[in-house]
Please model this.
Amino acid sequence: MKYHIEDITGIVKGKLVQQHDNAFIEHLLIDSRKMIFPDTSLFFAMKGPRRDGHVFLPALYEKGVRNFVVSEDTDASKLSQANIIQVKDVLQALQLLAAHHRKQYSLPVIGITGSNGKTIVKEWLNQLLDDQYSIIRSPRSYNSQIGVPLSVWPMNDTHELGIFEAGISQSGEMDRLQKIIQPSIGVFTNIGEAHSEGFLNRRQKVNEKLRLFTHVKTLVYCKDAPEINEGVAALWQQFNKGGQGSFEIFNWSTVTEATLQVLTVYKEEGTTLITALYKEQTIAIKIPFTDDASVENAIHCWCVLLHLGVAAKAIAKKMLQLGPVAMRLELKKGMNNCSIINDSYSADLSSFNIALDFLAQQSQHDRKTVILSDILQSGRNEKELYKEVAQALAQRGIARLIGIGEKMIQHQAVFRLSPIPELVFYPSVESFIHDFHHLSFRDETILLKGARVFELEQIDRLLEQKVHQTVLEIDLNALGHNLRQYQQLLQPTTKLMAMVKAFSYGSGSYEIANALQFHKVDYLAVAYADEGVELRRGGINLPIMVMNADPSTFDVLVQYNLEPDLYSPALLRSFEAFLKRQGIRQFPVHIELETGMNRLGFSPEELDTVLEVLKGDLFIVKSVYSHLAASEDPQHDAYTRRQASIFHGMVEKLQQVITYPFLRHISNTAGIARHPDLQLDMVRLGIGLYGIDSANTHRLELKEVSTLIATIAQIKHLKAGDTVSYGRRGVVERDTLVATVRIGYADGYPRNLSNGVGKMWVNGKLAPVIGTVCMDMVMIDITGIPHVQEGDDVILFGKELPVGQVAHWAQTIPYEMLTGISQRVKRVYFEE
Ligand SMILES: *Cc1c(COP(=O)(O)O)cnc(C)c1O
Model:
């Protein structure tokens, strides 16, 4: 909707002190630096403690802005073609305009307030509802006296639902926000310590916040905070008496009867299962978070969705897919193997505690550092406040505190008395940055917590991982697609074991296993116990076979419920002894049989030993298997058939002793594609998952999963006779354009791709390697390839240039190419 300048003058109760024309206004401008549309913008000359917007009028006029709202007498002679509206209070004018605009629409609007969690509840509601509604919502944490009007302004008649948050720091402010948001559904998240200075006490703060809900039809809140519960009751009464009709209450509680009565909250391996009673039925959701704040936020969202009539089943499905809200607590990788939590948005005690909880939950590093600015919370004895902070830090076992700000320095004695081992203080972010190189950050989790004014994000940028710009992109959709391709070749009853050994053929560990678990494969297999441990730690609960178990890992196998592959009499005996000592019985194992690969497995002669041990009840044999040596090659089909027949003979012998059913399997990727009769009870799918048709059948439509991408560091013009790289092997024969690419043999780019053997995909063309491959860099000849610039991406393999082709050039196989990509190459997973 557009507004005429004359209409706006009326709406904001101003006076058009100078009129040039009757312009149309589309954009509201507060910050002169953010001006994009001069013609259709209306600039509000806001007066803040530091800045007076009136100062910017001439500069904006110069850039073409012609419409202004001012509160000061303005020298109009320099703004001769402008429309100038004069008002008493520019902020109020902005708010009146936004409120008027909001009134033009009758869509349902969710208004959220409370001390913590507003943004997350808002973002989660958006995540949960955006497939059902066209939603307008506050950007980031725009919840202030200025942020709310700007949030509401883009509302138009395509929107079906509004979600806005409101934050206040003084009494009187909420009435103004109520008029702008006009919520029909209210959500009161909680009441904490934040911004206490503007209020007499918690009760007053609750009552003030509740003013957002004076005209709602439904109010969602948690009954368990007495101040909120009583405040809501009073509000309800007020409207009941006032004759305007009261609102519907939708509350929840963990201790007593409520609209949604939470029965259990059960945390396990990265998820929380919440069950509740609603309309006399037990319903449940599971969320991929375990901290208390997330649980509370999710329950608020749950209430709203139930109120909106979303089916319990649909809610459960969506809740499991909730993603973290980056603008608050985001966890990311930092330099030197650090993890960083950046929460530099506020610095009150309760949000500090929430952030500390989140930090404490991180298990990837033992060592934890907190970088903390002054706490901005007046109305409290400062010494007491910092004592509490020190206590909270000590309680969570923080190894190092880096304090930033005058107050931190002033109160450092309380920290020095606490058991926090390492303490450093700086008066400002600048002094910290100056000293940055003396503070070593390595293998630790770092929480950055501070008020916005401190701009800790400068530190965040320093700590962030210096991305080695070479990445291996993993397409999880392609992985799922390839899995389905092979599944189509299987009998409906045949099970599938996915091979995720060697870091899932180089493409990642629990990230890949997680996707496979999602796609419901039956089994996973890894080569070594520690790979299995990593999967368990990453939350994988599928059964996992470990192909290369050895006695030093027996206790780990048991602890993490990993199923060893027993392949020799010695291993069998020692595992038997281990289980006896531990008093463990019926432990799941797999038996590998030697049929012709001559790698691991019991030979036919050793079978009697196996049979003897298996008679007891120490083991449960889950499966019996063998490995084919040449399933991909028609030349060796007779050998393959002989392997199969030896296998069947040995299995028969085993079945005479093992009377319960176990799975028989022998086929790998190529076996699945070429020997349908060898599917048996299960198959072991490896390289095919990653997009390689190892049997060369050309019948499968596989997709490349991994794309290796590097960037161009420099481009040089060389003349005939110049040489490139070590040993001067790359001799330039004509004027040549050479690009230096950020990858080398240390990243897994084979050195025998030197001197034209290897080629890279640049801007749709193949560019040959020139000279020898260096440790961290390679030069390529890009002569004649148009529009190549420094910084451009180069594809080393991927959809455009299959890894099989590059492996062929390097005289190796895709298996070695993929698993050889070094761990310093960052893996990035994506899914459409
Ligand atoms: C690696 C491996 C597989 C998978 O082989 P692909 O050719 O990648 O399908 C199957 N079985 C065993 C025992 C393996 O070691």
The chain has five domains: 3-91, 105-320, 330-466, 490-690, 706-831. The chain has a mean pLDDT of 90. Residues 499, 547, 627, 668-670, 684-688, 694 surround pyridoxal-5'-phosphate (CB under 6 Å).
